Amino acid sequence: MLEPDIQQNNGSEGLAVYDVPYMTRTRDLYRAQGYEQDYRWAHFEDTPFTELKKPLSESRIAVITTAMPDTETGRSQRQVYSSNCDPIPESLYTDELSWDKKATHTKDVASFLPLNQLNQLKAAGRIASIAEQFHSVPTDYSQRNTMEKDGPDILKRCQEDNVDIALLVPL
After folding, report:
1. Rounded to whole angstroms, how far apart are CA atoms 122 and 129?
2. 12-18 and 129-130: which strand pairing?
3. pLDDT band for position 19 (cuts 50, 70, 90)
4. Fewer CB within 10 Å of terminal CB in the chain, N or C?
5. Does one domain contain both 86 and 36?
6. What residues contact residue 163 under an 8 Å CB cut-off, 6+ apart?
7. Beta carbons of 169 and 62 less than 8 angstroms apart
8. Within 10 A of 75 (CB to CB), how many other CB atoms are there?
9. Would you tell me how many other CB atoms lie within 10 Å of the CB of residue 47?
10. Residue 115 belongs to a domain
11. What is the full DSSP assignment across 74-94?
């Protein structure tokens, strides 16, 4: 049983905050499924990020999310998808993703697909442009699939769109 950590939050006293021991829970799940070795999280000596080559006001932004298109194909096939940013989708498929479904919901697409917010930044001159498509990448416990298949696919799509910055928005 999780013990609440009573904290103050934006002036609200007595708010119960529960710590979810994600790594312990994942190890226990793997053991319960009969795996002999614990799940190994990705670890890199060097972070795979680079400094911006130009100011934000001159940069083209792409959004990458772990939510899938809310279509029959998007619900049934876990693969990389590209979808038009305009019009902004009213919903995305999130049911199979792991998130705290008791504490929040995904009915507000703007909370995890910030296209409206990026459009405002573009209008204000804070960014140059938004790629015509956003990309959905499946969550996958296979580091090999991520590194050898999905990652290169997303990189190729971003390069084809002449993207300067990839904004990763996992759910």
Report:
1. 6
2. unpaired
3. low
4. N
5. no
6. 60, 61, 62, 131
7. no
8. 13
9. 6
10. yes
11. HHH--S-EEEESSSPPS-EE-
- What is the number of structural domains in the chain? 2
Domain that holds residue 90: 56-169
Tokens 């140059």 — which residue?
128
Q: Could you tell me if residue 34 is left (phi over 0), alpha (psi between -120 and 50 degrees) or otherwise beta?
A: left
In terms of residues, how long is the chain? 171
For residue 48, give both structure tokens.
């795979």
Q: Do 34 and 102 share a domain, yes or no?
A: no
116, 156, 105: which is closest to 135 by C-alpha? Answer: 156
Q: Are 93 and 67 in contact (CB under 8 A)?
A: yes
pLDDT tens per residue, range 27-67:
888 888 888 888 777 777 877 678 899 999 999 999 999 88
Tokens of 16: 């119960």
| DSSP secondary structure of 114-143 | -HHHHHHHHHTTSSSEE-SEEEE----S-H
Contacts with 148 (C-beta within 8 Å, 6 or more apart), sequence order: none
| Residue indicated by tokens 């910030």 | 114
Domain membership of residue 47 (yes or no) is: no
At 53 the three-state DSSP class reads: coil
Is 137 found in the same domain as 61? yes
